[in-house]
Amino acid sequence: MATAPRIAKPIAANDETAPEAESLSFESRIAQALPRLSPAEQRVARFFLTQKESLLLGSAVEIAAAAGASDATVVRTARSLGFDGLADLREAVLGELTSATPSPSNRLRRTLHEAGADAAAALHHVLGTHEESLRVLREPQFARSFTGAVDILAETPRCHVFGIGPSGAMADYATLQFNRIGLPATALSVSGIGLADRLIGLRSGEALLMIAYAPIYREVAVALDRAEQLKMPVILISDSLGPFIGKRARHVLPVPRGRAVNLSMHGATLVTIEALATALAARRRVDALASLEELGALRGALDKDWLKRGLGRNGTRRG
To answer: Which residues pair with 160 in a beta bridge?
Structure first.
């Protein structure tokens, strides 16, 4: 078996130059290689980046069919990225997914090293990171999974949105948006035994939208077990957990959280949530419009001046 390439490790606390000495993360390796790859290789490389479950579990022929390329192009792309072959590339991906997660301080140290101290440079660094993430959302494979997710959510009587920590804030926001457009939703955004009070409200026929990342922690495992017990379809938003839960998720939306060893950034997750809400409102147009009319009436009951404010000349609501 070929020796797996080195996987990026956490930066030592006293080593400010470590980012230059370490090997590249899988995402960074692809980002740097893309400009010199052929169009077919670029398509396969982006597939490697966004479909890690298929990459780890599929044969070269299966990967080629899913990526819209030949199996020879799949192997050639792996070699163009600096790996000995497909098996070597898989080892790198699996090793990165299962390696110890860098601490927040190490992630920040690496991010600051790349962004620099200048405010404008930091702005451009973050914008560049989000632009990389949003490119994934434009991929045809992502659009297909997104459409499948909307198909499920448009038919469910209630959606439960799982997320812990920063992902919990995303879960709360998704719940607010879904409720506004008339899709009853609850947030499973607490950890520990408090989550049991939320999970007990799940019912057969409803849907679970899960925002979570590798490794599988206890709350994820229990939520998945509960959904499986109730035969609830699961939609997963994650760029790392998919390979570990396999077919327990009906659809996987591989939304990046920025670069693997930098600070996690949730801009693309927010875009995905808002895209889901928009697509669902289009599918449930009558319910969505009626729900927002009701929301406006409730705001007016709480604030008598609300309905008098109207819109300004530029289309924004006054006040």
So the answer is: 186, 208
* Residues in Cβ contact with 281 at an 8 Å cutoff, skipping those fewer than 6 apart: 181, 288
Measured between alpha carbons, how far is 5 from 95 in angstroms, rounded to an integer?
10
Q: Distance (Å, rounded) from C-alpha 172 to C-alpha 162?
A: 9
Tokens standing for residue 228: 């499986």
Residue 128 lies in a domain: no
How do residues 138-186 score in pLDDT, each as one tens digit?
Answer: 988 899 999 999 999 999 999 999 999 999 999 999 999 999 999 999 9
- Integer angstrom CA distances of residue 155 from 6, 90, 149, 179: 46, 37, 10, 15
Residues 6+ apart with CB under 8 A from 192: 219
Q: Which domain holds residue 21?
A: 12-99
**Within 13 A of 141's CA, how many CA atoms are on the CB side?**
23
Note whether 139 and 50 are within 8 A (CB).
yes
- Buried b / exposed e over 56-78, threshold 16 CB at 10 Å, is bebebeebbebbebebebbbbbb
Whether 24 and 164 map to the same domain: the answer is no
Dump strand ranges (E) for the chain: 159-162, 185-188, 207-211, 234-237, 251-253
Model pTM score: 0.72
State the Cα–Cα distance between residues 30 and 76, nearest whole angstrom: 14
Strand order in the sheet with 234-237: 185-188, 159-162, 207-211, 234-237, 251-253
Q: How many domains does the chain have?
A: 2
